[in-house]
Design brief:
By secondary structure, the protein is an all-alpha fold. About 65% of the residues lie in helices and about 0% in strands. It has one domain (about 45-210). The protein is built from nine helices and no strands. The protein starts with 9 loop residues before the first helix and ends with a helix.
Length: about 220
């Protein structure tokens, strides 16, 4: 008996094409949706993972600011998310490094937008007070976790407080908010930005020393 050669009908071809198109559209749509940056107030783990990318580092300041605001409002929540995530140690360090660098640039921009004089000094006092508050918060947090007065010596890598910064870090000069890492990041920035940040850091240092002298 000869074999029957069944060919799809025109309607069947239309159905096959429509189904394949729908699958391709759904797959492409999911890929596109999944590639979108998370909302600043979204899932903390996703926000931290995004902060570790060059896409975050290259965002314009206006788009980066909402993420800085969210992470500054509750840094402990984002550090906890980073510790409990599947992110590598390098990703966690890069995320916090990007965050600290972006925050420092935003603070510098605001500083230089203020006319030289008492208002600039007032702004520096505000920043220094915030840094002291963060140091106290992280010292209390570390003490509560049995790591001593915020030195992070007994913490797992990336869980201590960075030297010179009142927030999460790796502790010592190798932490992701440490002066060494900040310096390395600055070396990769445009000369104009480096000069701006150097002047801003000097202004902060001078104002801190003046406060210590009681002026």
């Amino acid at each position: 008996m000869p074999k029957l050669k069944l060919k799809p009908t025109k309607r069947q071809w239309i159905w096959i094409g429509s189904t394949a198109g729908a699958i391709a559209l759904a797959t492409g749509g999911w890929t596109w949706w999944n590639s979108l940056p998370p909302a600043p107030d979204g899932v903390p783990v996703k926000v931290v993972a995004f902060a570790a990318t060059d896409d975050f580092a290259n965002l314009p300041p206006s788009e980066k600011q909402p993420y800085l605001d969210a992470m500054s409002a509750d840094p402990g929540k984002f550090m906890e998310a980073a510790r409990n995530s599947n992110l590598s140690e390098d990703q966690r360090r890069k995320a916090m490094g990007n965050f600290f660098m972006a925050r420092a640039e935003a603070e510098a921009d605001k500083y230089f937008a203020i006319e030289p004089g008492p208002e600039r000094e007032k702004y520096l006092d505000q920043l220094l007070n915030q840094m002291e508050q963060r140091r106290a918060q992280w010292a209390n947090r570390a003490a509560g976790e049995g790591r001593g007065p915020g030195n992070g010596n007994n913490a797992a890598p990336g869980q201590g407080r960075p030297r010179g910064e009142g927030g999460p870090g790796g502790g010592g000069r190798g932490g992701f908010g440490s002066p060494d890492r900040m310096k390395n990041r600055l070396e990769k920035t445009p000369p104009g930005t480096r000069a701006k940040m150097a002047e801003f850091r000097k202004a902060m240092r001078d104002r801190r020393e003046a406060r210590q002298r009681g002026k």
